[in-house]
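Marked as duplicate of an earlier ticket. Keeping the data here for the record.
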Amino acid sequence: ELTLEFQNDGNITGSAGCNRYFGPYTTSGDTIQIGALSTTRAFCPEPEGIMDQEQEFLTALQTAATYSIQNDKLDIRTADGAIVVMAIPHT
């Protein structure tokens, strides 16, 4: 399970599937920039591919350029409009 939490102090944190991550973010209007992310250093051999998924997710987050929130759905995209993340609130 991948999670995102944007904190009011300008930090993002969450789970990348195996490890927790954290780092800075800034927004202005509908633009967003996510800075260098740090992670805990656990190794998760299962499920297969989890470590690759984790790295791809963290790399994708750092390409974020714009965001929108509609109907409780967060949509983050690159500068050329490719989807980085689509997220819904955890219930």
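See parent ticket for discussion. The mean pLDDT is 95.
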